[in-house]
Amino acid sequence: NVRPEYPYRPYNPTDRNHDYPKKKPYLYPEKTTTAKTTHIGVVTPSDKPDTCDTSYDAVALIRGELFIFKNRYHWRIGANGRYPGYPIEITRMWPSLPKGLTHVDAVYERPDKKIAFFVGKELYLCDSQHLVRGYPKPLTNLGLPESLEKLDAAMVWGYNGKTYFYSGTMYWKYDEDEGRVELDYPRDMSMWKGVGYNIDSVFQWKDGKTYFFKGKGFWKFNDLQMRVEHERQLPSAPMWMH
């Protein structure tokens, strides 16, 4: 058997045209279980997720930077690596999202550069950091079924430039111009061979490739063969949390 090739982001330090994150030493932050003591002596546990050991709620490429979401927090990874001080609350970057936000289910940047946040049965659409007038809207406005409790993931697929939504065992193709899912959907997730059901997130990276996330690992997906490039998941943190 041929061992699967470990995916990598093509980065040539002598090529000034590349804007891929530079390889940096992988620093392990303190465990999130560490309690912090306030000035009055009250111990409060941190609810921040562990940068080096967590699953992801959503992953998205926004304005050319990588955003990773977990619980009410997010990380931001740019051309020079992970921004210091992260993770921070999602609502600090997008204050127009609900004040008591505990998580997001799926996030993607639309072709018109607006950012779609899916939370439960609702869609919040932001233009930069501001909520677009008329939002949030129910998922049913997109042609999704009333019975759908949430989306698992959403992306614009690099293979054809079309938008896809995923939930449980099913996926939908979404028409951005019409504002509704296409009529001959949903279809079974088995079309995306090797990924399985109930994914956590999916996105297209700058290399034009598709990456599916589930638990603490990910698969690189071969868009032409419609199957994962490696059957065994690879750990997410060493690859994406630079």
TrEMBL record:
<dbReference type="GO" id="GO:0004222">
    <property type="term" value="F:metalloendopeptidase activity"/>
</dbReference>
<dbReference type="GO" id="GO:0005615">
    <property type="term" value="C:extracellular space"/>
</dbReference>
<dbReference type="InterPro" id="IPR018487">
    <property type="entry name" value="Hemopexin-like_repeat"/>
</dbReference>
<dbReference type="Pfam" id="PF00045">
    <property type="entry name" value="Hemopexin"/>
</dbReference>
<feature type="region of interest" description="Disordered">
    <location>
        <begin position="1"/>
        <end position="23"/>
    </location>
</feature>
<keyword id="KW-0677">Repeat</keyword>
<dbReference type="InterPro" id="IPR036375">
    <property type="entry name" value="Hemopexin-like_dom_sf"/>
</dbReference>
<dbReference type="GO" id="GO:0030574">
    <property type="term" value="P:collagen catabolic process"/>
</dbReference>
<dbReference type="GO" id="GO:0030198">
    <property type="term" value="P:extracellular matrix organization"/>
</dbReference>
<feature type="repeat" description="Hemopexin">
    <location>
        <begin position="101"/>
        <end position="146"/>
    </location>
</feature>
<dbReference type="InterPro" id="IPR000585">
    <property type="entry name" value="Hemopexin-like_dom"/>
</dbReference>
<feature type="repeat" description="Hemopexin">
    <location>
        <begin position="148"/>
        <end position="195"/>
    </location>
</feature>
<protein>
    <submittedName>
        <fullName>Uncharacterized protein</fullName>
    </submittedName>
</protein>
<feature type="repeat" description="Hemopexin">
    <location>
        <begin position="196"/>
        <end position="242"/>
    </location>
</feature>
<feature type="repeat" description="Hemopexin">
    <location>
        <begin position="49"/>
        <end position="97"/>
    </location>
</feature>
